[in-house]
Here is the input.
Amino acid sequence: MNRHLVTLICITLPVVLLVIAAELIDDRLLTRLATTLCINMILVLGLQIFTGNSGILSFAHIGFMGIGAYTSAVITMPARLKSMALPELYPIMQGVQLDPLVGMAIGGVVAALVAAIVAYPLMRLSDAAAVITSFALLMILHTIMVHWSEVTNGPRTLFGIVEATTLQLAAAAAVVAAIGAYWFKESRVGILLRAVRNDEVAAAAIGAHIPLLRWRAYVLSAFYAGIGGALWAHFITSFSPNAFYLRETFVILGMLVIGGPATVSGAVFGVFSVTAVFEGLRALEKAINAADLFSSTVVGLTEIILALVMLIVLILRPGGIIERNEFGTLARWPFMKKQNSSRGE
Amino acid sequence: MSNRRLRINEVSVEFSGLRALDKVSLTIETGEILGLIGPNGSGKTTLVNAITGQVRPSTGAVCIGDEEITALSPRRIALKGITRSFQQVRLFNDLSVVENVAATSLAKGLSLRAARQTARELLVDFNLSDFGDMAAGALNHGDKRRVEIVRALAGDPSFLLLDEPAAGMNETESDALLATLAELPASRALGILVIDHDMSLIMRLCHRLHVISSGKTIGEGSVETVRSLPAVVEAYLGTSETSP
Here is the structure.
C-alpha cells in the first residue's frame, strides 16, 4: 500500500464507520448528529481546499454555503408552497420545481459561479488584505441574503423546503468530498498553490500564475460550500440568513484550524474531534443541570471549554493538530513498504 | 535553444530617489558564464532583480534576442526562459524535493507525471536523488542551494541567474558545485550569470567578468583583463572584500 491509499482510507473510513454505527443504534438524535457532522465535513474540506493550500484565511466561505442553500431551496420547492413561503418570488421562477438532487448540484454550481466572478480581482491580494476583503465579502453576501426578499424571504425564516438529505446521502457526499480535496491537494494546481503558500516570490520566479492558481482553488472551495449548504437546507428544511453568518463561520473555521488547515487529514480530524468534544460537553452540561449540583443552571460551558481547547491547541501547535503530514506519512505503518526516507522528518 | 543573447541596455534602478543602479549595460551569450562581481551593496542583486522583474528599472531595457522584456512580470519573464536562484535560499519548504523541482515544469504547463519524471532525472544528474522524497525544509544548507539551482534548471531556461550559489558552502561543496556549473552552458545550451564573493570560484568558473561598484560599471572583460584594471583593484580586489 502506498501513502496515498493509506491517507484516503483514513480520511473516508471514519465516515463509513459513523454511518454503520448510526444504522445499528438507530437513534434519531444520533442520526441527525451524524448527518450534521457529514455536512460540516464537506464545508470544512471546502475551506481546506482554499485556505489550506493557499495559506489565505477566507471568511466568505459560509456566504457561499448560503448561496447553495437558498438556490437549491428555491428551485426545488413545490409550487403550492412557494406562494406561501416566498410570496414575492419572481413569476418566472414560481413554476420551477426540480428534483432535490438536481437542485443541490445547481446550488453548488451557482455558488461556484458567484465565486468565480467576485473572486478574480481579489486573488491578487495576500496576507491581511486578503483576509479583510474576504470578511467584507461575507458581509456583502449576508446583506444581500437579508434584503433580497424575492428569493430569500428577507430576514425572516424560509420554511417549507423539501426534506431530502439523508445520512447516507450526506455521508456519500462527504466521502467524495474528502477524496476530491486530497486529489486537489496532490494535483498540478494543488502543488503549485502550496509552493505559492511557502514562497510567493520564488513561485513567481519559476513562472507560477499566482492569482489564477488561487482562483481555481477558490471556485472549487465555493462549490463545496454550495453543496454543503444545499445538503444542509434539505436537512434542516427551514432557516434564515443568520444561519450563514458569524456563528457558522467560526464553527467551520475552528474545526479546520484545530485539526490542521494544511492537511486534508487535519480537516477531517478537526471535524470529528471538535464534534465529539462539543457533544460531550453538551451532554455533561445537561447532566450537571439535571443533577441540580449548583444553585443556578450551568450555561455556556460548551463554548468556554471549546474556546480554551482552541487556544491551547494553537499555542502548542500553531499549525493545528495534524500540521504537515497526511495520515499516510504520519506514522510508519507496519503494512507499508519500507522507505529510505519519509517526508517531513 | 537558438543562439540568442540576453542584453541589458543602460538599466537604472532607483529606490525612493536613491540610485541603486546607474546605466549598467551587459550581455550574456548562450554558452557562456558571466561573473558579476562588486563590493557589498554595489547593486549586483538589484541587477538580477531588474532582469527577472522583481524590481522595475526606471530607465533602460532588458531584451532576449530582439524581444524586449523590461516591463514584464516575474512570471512572464520566467516563462520567457530566464530563471534564477536567490541570495537567501527560497525553497518551498513544505513540498518534497521532487515537488520543488517539478513545480517549475508544472508552472510551464507540463503534466504531473511528466514534471515528476523530469524532476527525478535532474535530481539524479545533481546527485540529489536520495533526498527526492524528503521535505525541502529538512535539507542542509548546501543541499538547499543545489536544489534551488536544479529547480531553476527544470524549466529548461535559456538563461540562468545565480545569486551567490556557493554562499555558506564549504570548500568541498563549492568545488563540486563549480564542476557541475562549469558543464551546464555546453550541455544545456544556456547562458549563466553568477554573482559570488568567492573569488577563487568566480575566477575558475567564469569566461568573462563584469564589475560594478556603487551601481556603476567599473570594468568588464576576460578574467585576466579585469584582474589588472586599476579601478577594479582599487574598488574591489585590493580591499578586504575578497573574503566572503
Q: What stands out?
A: Chain A has a mean pLDDT of 92.
